[in-house]
Backbone:
């Protein structure tokens, strides 16, 4: 996830920017850059990879006296992690850094290109700086030119702009992406979150959406649609770790709440009005491919298993899913007509990586779906699709699962389109649902509160069964995995129809059944499975849009029009349930016992 810092004042600017960017490292990045104007001299440095590379490049650069400066860490989403794509982006005499996504950048880019502007990067951000300089040509007042620029931007942004045309001033704007201003005497700081300015600024103002303005020495002006605003600063917190959690108790909780935003990032540029588009895949990528094998571990395996239903249903393509550690030693029969997909959050999971190497050695075409660009699995694969979830710190994976499932759903529909196996009506229905997915994972405070209250009834017993059918079966597996990882209670995911073939023998009032009962998929079937359990006195927590009279506890979901929207909404419920049970049991939610975030050993 990208990070922004800015500083205006007399202190050494390079160190302030690099220290600030270091504080944002935990969010993940793959390139970084800074730009400084001192007097009328503009200096700029960029480097791909770790911040040490940028430190190395700037080691003989120092600043003295008053000046303005901006810095950025970039997590590649549009365009590869290259120096040209790294921020700050340069116009003829101005620099800009930006977080978020300018949704109308193609339109703006074309307009600017028609005016003769040459673009150096593949980013949406570069349009801001060129648009500003275009506006400045016709309007010599720098602030008016900036205001005019901001008025044309659609989408989410937090942006800082500096220009040789006004070398004492930092221009800023915020809409949909976080940005704050820190104060300490005449020094002014900017950042995309608290951590870079803790220990430097004493007071802070958190910009609201639609606010923009400028900062000069001793003067900060903020405007919104109604003109200039007065604003109240608050005392800045001093606890950095708490600040990294953005006010949430745990990283896992923050990541659950972030899912709506990252799902939006995942679909941007990929889900278009009438089709799915993956710039990562050549036109003929699926030529000669008649089946898919997916290999993964843990949560990534669960998302893979859910997608196997979608590949067969939408893509009309046979799809097998294998646990990587099993696949490696089963002496699998591999054919070059099968696409080999690996799924991994970290891109470093040893079993998945080794399975991938086996597939490559057998001459299979390979594709990875991964959250970390340049990871071992991405480098080893023929092609990679990034999930764009941003860094996931909680050991129990949440937003990685959400974005993997989203990418796989899109990919299944993509296959259906390429192979002509889906009708226009189905494409329309799926795309419409996909565009609603970020909304379906939004956490409702009332729901969270309800799950918190209800969780106290689930701290004992002799185990949990999460049950579901179709894609809700892998979701049940994932719900059970989440719960056992952080609560240390025994939990199993089961296909609901399979309970009567053995596990129902365990049913009694101390057996907790979490029943995923979507309205839009096999409702009556799962209902009778749950009734069988209820008849044996199992305690039932039903999650469904439809009230269910036999439930001991009931969580009513909102979506009922499309199974995948129900899937994502129920996913959030199971994640929050695991979180709240774990908190009540006093466990370390972010670092559960015996587990590591990335399993790089066999
Ligand atoms: O990084 P990966 O997706 O390859 O990791 C695979 C599993 O180790 C991982 O999903 C693990 O199961 C998580 N702790 C689940 O929350």
Residues:
């Amino acid at each position: 996830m990208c990070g922004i810092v800015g500083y205006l004042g007399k202190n050494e600017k390079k160190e302030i920017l690099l220290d600030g960017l270091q504080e944002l490292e935990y969010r993940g990045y793959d390139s970084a850059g800074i730009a400084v104007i001192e007097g009328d001299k503009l200096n700029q440095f960029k480097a791909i990879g770790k911040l040490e590379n940028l430190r190395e490049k700037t080691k003989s650069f120092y600043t003295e006296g008053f000046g303005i400066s901006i810095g950025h860490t970039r997590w590649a989403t549009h365009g590869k992690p290259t120096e040209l794509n790294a921020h700050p982006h340069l116009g003829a005499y101005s620099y800009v850094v930006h977080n978020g996504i300018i949704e109308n950048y193609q339109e703006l880019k074309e307009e600017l290109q028609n005016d003769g502007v040459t673009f150096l990067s593949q980013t949406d951000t570069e349009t801001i700086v060129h648009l500003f300089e275009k506006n400045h040509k016709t309007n010599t007042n720098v602030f008016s030119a900036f205001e005019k620029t901001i008025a044309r931007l659609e989408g989410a942004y937090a942006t800082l702009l500096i220009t040789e045309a006004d070398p004492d001033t930092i221009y800023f704007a915020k809409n949909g992406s976080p940005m704050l201003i820190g104060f300490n005497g005449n020094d002014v700081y900017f950042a995309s979150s608290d951590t870079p300015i803790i220990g430097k600024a004493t007071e802070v103002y958190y910009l609201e959406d639609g606010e923009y303005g400028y900062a000069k020495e001793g003067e900060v002006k903020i405007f919104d649609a109604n003109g200039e605003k007065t604003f109240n600063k608050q005392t800045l917190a001093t606890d950095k770790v708490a600040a990294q959690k953005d006010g949430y108790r745990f990283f896992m909780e923050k990541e659950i709440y972030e899912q709506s935003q990252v799902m939006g990032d995942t679909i941007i540029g990929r889900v278009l009005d009438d089709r799915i588009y993956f710039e990562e895949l050549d036109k003929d990528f699926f030529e000669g491919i008649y089946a898919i094998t997916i290999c993964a571990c843990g949560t990534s395996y669960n998302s893979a298993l859910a997608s196997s239903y979608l590949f067969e249903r939408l893509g009309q393509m046979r799809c097998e899913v294998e646990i990587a550690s099993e696949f490696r030693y089963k002496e699998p029969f591999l054919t070059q007509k099968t696409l080999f997909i690996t799924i991994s959050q970290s891109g470093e999971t040893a079993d998945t990586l080794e399975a991938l190497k086996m597939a490559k050695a057998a001459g299979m075409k390979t594709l990875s779906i991964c959250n970390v660009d340049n990871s071992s699995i991405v480098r080893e694969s023929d092609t990679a699709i990034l999930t764009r979830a941003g860094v996931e710190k909680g050991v129990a994976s949440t937003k990685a699962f959400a974005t993997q499932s989203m990418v796989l759903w899109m990919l299944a529909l993509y296959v259906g389109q390429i192979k002509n196996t889906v009708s226009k009506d189905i494409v329309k229905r799926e795309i419409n649902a996909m565009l609603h997915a970020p909304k379906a994972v939004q956490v409702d405070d009332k729901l969270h509160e309800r799950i918190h209250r209800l969780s106290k009834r689930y701290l004992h017993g002799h185990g949990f069964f999460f049950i579901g059918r179709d894609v809700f079966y892998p979701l049940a597996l994932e719900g059970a995995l989440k719960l056992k990882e952080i609560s240390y209670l025994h939990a199993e995911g089961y296909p609901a129809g399979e309970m009567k073939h053995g596990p129902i023998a365990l049913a009694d009032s101390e057996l907790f059944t979490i029943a995923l009962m979507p309205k839009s998929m096999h409702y009556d079937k799962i209902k009778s499975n749950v009734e069988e359990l209820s008849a044996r006195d199992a305690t039932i927590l039903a999650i469904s849009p439809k009230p269910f009279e036999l439930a001991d506890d009931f969580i009513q979901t909102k979506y009922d029009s499309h199974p995948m929207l129900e899937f994502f909404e129920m996913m959030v419920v199971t994640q929050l349930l695991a979180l709240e049970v774990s908190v009540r049991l006093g466990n370390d939610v972010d670092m559960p016992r015996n587990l590591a975030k990335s399993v790089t050993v066999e």
The mean pLDDT is 92. Residues 3-244 form a domain with the Glutamine Phosphoribosylpyrophosphate, subunit 1, domain 1 fold (CATH 3.60.20.10).
